[in-house]
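Before our next group meeting I need something from you. Please put the record directly below this note.
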Amino acid sequence: MKVLVTGVAGQLGHDVICELLAQKIEVIGTDIVNTVPDLQVPYFPMDITDQASVSKAISEIQADAVIHCAAWTAVDAAEDPQNQAKVFAINEQGTKYIAQACKDTDTKMMYISTDYVFNGQGDTPWQPDCQHYAPLNIYGQSKLAGEQAVRSLLDHFFIVRIAWVFGLHGNNFIKTMLKIAQTHDTIRVVNDQIGTPTYTKDLAKLLVQMIQTDKYGYYHATNEGGYISWYDFACEIFRQAQLPVHVIPVSTQEYGQSKAQRPFNSRLDKTKLVQNGFIPLPAWQDALKRYLQEMKQYGTNHRS
């Protein structure tokens, strides 16, 4: 099997490449940057916002599958009117071009999406096949448009929604908390946004397992261990890191609105994974422990 991975400079794409290599699966990487030095894999230049570039790359590579991790993920920056055309060019048009090329070459496609396609209200976990879409912000709208492009062009596909992502090779909530702890002994964190963290290293194993099957459809994938707030997550980060930081729980309203509206309900139902024979991700508490150990090994600022 040969797999093309987009967005390999990002925290998820990087870990997907590493997992494919660990399983001795032939892999080719691509990203907007020219190369990723610490990834010893064949690299193919491809601009996902250029349809000709995408078509040429996928037809020449002749991969059996594409795992599409590349995306605009800066949620607040996406709200800037000057950025919105680029956000949709990447998340919608780029995904559409890849889906069309996969259709033309009869290549499997996996698209990584987000809980932000929903309205974030209530307290019931979102089901993978729920189509009551109502994204709250530009990022969510663009990712939903990408989902719809995949669904409209392909009969068989994987769409995997994730949330609260953290990995070694990028910025994330854990790194932010550890950085703040260097200068603050008390911090405020919202306690009314609920979800579950997703460790890219664990997620990558699931995605590679999934792409080797024909069990197509919509899936939700986060770590196990229950639903928590960002406040709960911060408390556990400082507990495991043995840092004497006092965390004060506040509401989103008390904290102050960011540029992009955030969902209160990021609960994702993952039972479909087990029903289709996939191995669920480990508990997020265990994932956090392993991640902190990895950060110590490589340094907290490794490619962040």
Notes: The first helix runs from residue 11 to 22.
